[in-house]
Give the backbone structure.
Amino acid sequence: MRNKALLGLRGQGEASTAWMWQIAPTVMLLLFFFILPLAGVVRTSFYPGTRSFGAEGFSFEQYLKVILDPFYRSVLIDTIVDGLIVSMVCLVIGFPVGYSLARLPPKQRRWRLILVILPLTLSLVVIVFGWIVILGRGGLVNQLLVSIGAIDRPIRLPYNRTAVLLILVQQFLPYMILSVMSVCSKIDPVLEHAAANLRANRFTTFRRVIVPLAAPGIVSGMILVFILTVSAFVTPRLVGGGNVQMLGSIIYEQVIVALNWPLGGALAMVLLIVTSIVISLANLLAAKKFARHRSSANAK
Amino acid sequence: MDKNTAVLTLKNLNKTYDNTTAVDSVSLDVVKGELLCLLGPSGCGKTTTLRMVAGFVKPTSGSVLIQGSDVTNQAPYRRDTGMVFQSYALFPHMTVAQNIAFGLQNIGFAAKAQTERVHEMLQLVELEHLSKRFPAELSGGQQQRVALARALAMNPAVLLLDEPFSNLDAQLRVRLREDLRALLKRIRITTLFVTHDQEEALMFADRVVVMRSGRVEQVGSPAEIYETPATRFVAEFIGWCSLFEGVVDGQGVFTTGKSIRLPLDHKPGPATVIVRPEYVKPAEALGSGPVFEARVTSNTYYGALCRLRLDVSGQEVLMEAHYPYGHGPSIGDRIEIRIDPKGARRLPAH
Amino acid sequence: MDRRSFLKTTSLTLAAATLAAPNILRAQAKRFEGVTLNINGYGGDYDRILKESVAKPLEDQTGLRVVYTPSTASAAVARIIASPDNPPFDLVMCDSPNMPDLIKAGAITPTNLGPDVIGRIVPSVREFGDYGIPMSVASMIVTYNKTLVKSPLTSFIDLARPDLEGRVAMFNLENSGGVLYFLALAEAGGGNVDNVDPAFEALRKIKPNITAVTPSTVNLLQLFEQEEAWAGAFWDGRVFSMQKAGKPMALVPPKEGLYALRSYVSPVKGTKHPDAVKAYLEQLVTGPFITELSRFFGYVPTTNIQLPPDVAASVIPYGKGGLESLRAINWEKVAAYRGDWLSRFNREMR
């Protein structure tokens, strides 16, 4: 839409610079809050040594350190895999919830939506410690497992990868639910009737009508959860118990604790680049499959 | 009507939401190849009835039979119905051909049979050249035809049409109605169709079911519905008419007190009489019948004819007349009219 | 998460002396009317005691307002270093490990207090010359649950004992507490700050016993309180308050020696209110703050103040020599090496 409006203006001579003024605030905002800080991180990552204040020169030292070290490599791979797992699990749990919310009348949707969003308003640290209590030996989960006889005595539940991923799923699920809900509420429910009338059972309707039409929301939800997961640092540090390493917490340690901003910057840049690649691939895949209907749907 | 040939039967169908009754004891038979129309104002229960046939709404009581078997509790996707939705409900992410093939895949058509059937259907609705298009790239009329082809491809026992012409502009609507009727008749498919447009119902249907507040008011051929409405509601809902309240005296003459006198030859007693406007003519245009003096209160020009509202001593009379060369009367003019007594219908007493 | 937050709140009554501000101070009242000092906060009871025994009396006497913004100390340090032209704080509170970077970056200035004030501070506590006023000392000690661990532990390396399998919890090197036991293990094994291989050697022996390492004080506290962990290395103050709350936790000064860090408050370079900053520091050293800190946390006072007998009886026993027995730590080198230690710790303890 915007592009068309811009093209339309181009012929009118006088108004030809108007669009510059229109987008100026956005550009300034991006420049000030995104581009400039990012440029700072890029510059920092090319300093030699371990401190950025008073540092001079230009060096690939940090990047070599990151790339050549098998530890960072394996943590990077773990982090990406964690991102994929969490976004998949969020999708599996979040889709039915988001979809059913979209199909509720607005009045009934409202308080359920509040329940979904509520966890986002809580401090992450509070949530994490809450989980540690729940998962602890005297916690709810252990008590439950013992009382139903699944285990003889309480077992250690937190401080491993499963616990970290579980808590990440809980944290990021609302984003998936909201993303799926917003796209599903745009799918005309009559299409489901049409599918049923054409002898499609629930599963076929879901697979061939709902999922393709919800694809943009699914993709954006998964990308969102993926980004949030690969950049998570509080949860892996507090729940991982040292056994779970994720790049976010390593960057946090280098930047905040060790004040080694050049190395932290390089790690952050590597994470940014790898994440961008994964997201581009996901977009490309989605675009290939759904591009045509999306363009035609937009024309409607 | 022969029960054995009924493709679709509704028995005492009821639907209540909370405390409102949407559909109230509707019973119907639709025979093979028949075009049956459910007609009524919005909220009369016609769409709910259609949706109960398709299975999207579960009846509170009563039953739906398709080809003799009770499908009342069957899931929509097991029912042998094909529906064309008001919004057409084409799948936006599928091409025309994919839309039509969708149902075929669900009932296990092999790939080759699918292609053939899709092609056949596209031929039927004359859209072969658009098979690779997406719905958003089609006009409203084309979308309607795709929706029809998609439903017909399944060769359903009953075709359900939900206000199929309401999303089309007026000119297109008339032409498509004729085309569609011809097509449905040609393939002899049993069709249940819903509309609020009485003109559409009259020209499209074999039989019309007029509904009001969830109940069936009258069932009959278009001519029966129009010429001999069973109730005042039907009379007023279908077309234009003058409505006279009065009594029939011992000589079989109907009078409304001071103004209207019509020889009816009916049983004596109070009566409600309707007269369609085409049975009211300027005095000089009709050879016989009582003459009334009337004052023109409005005159709407429709080209081939004019619709006039007339005041006959305080009684409103509607007239449809042809005035050649645009020489119709003006508001306030006094004219003489005749009412054709053969065109006067006495409504059954209730 | 800061180690001083989340402490159980207990009532604190201020010494009557503080409430009755000397008349002589009233004379120069409202010297800093309208001035506000911004300081990062540690959160919890530490901030409360600061407010009650430093900020409140100052405000009463001089009109100076002090605002504490709780955050992690290292985040506050990072912010100060990142914005040298427009520092977010007038004073910064942080621990020994952050001081070398603040000094090297030129982000803090020497305290410039008179000898009458500086002279009160225990000399061995001042690690950075004129930089920073040490408010309190926190040491890493060995702790264990006396009901669950039968034979007493006496050193950090005892945590490698086979009977503690899966029952040991401690900080990782992200928390400065981790650096303390880490240096203790290095030096006890014949290494030093430049050669920490012996520390990693010892950690390899302890590793099978470790249930979790964490950067969070609250998390470690939880581990001991939930009896997820039976033994480990922890802050003296935290063990002290667990004991007061009735937990059977032992507080053992380790055989490796007492390794401690100090919490400093330092003037940030570029503050607009150097006089107010000076007044704040003087109040902190000479006022009731040090006493109240000892009363609440059991910390050994960093000044030569005479504690009331009841408080003196309850401070954490440091054994012979008191603060003089603390091992000297080269924090400059720790700061330089810490990033590498973190990486190596993360990969070896994973």
User: Anything to note?
Assistant: Residues 1-13, 294-300 of chain A have pLDDT under 50 and may be disordered. The longest helix of chain A spans residues 261-299. Chain A touches chain B at residues 188, 190-191, 193-201, 204, 208-209, 212-213, 290, 292-293, 296-297, 299-300 (CB under 8 Å).
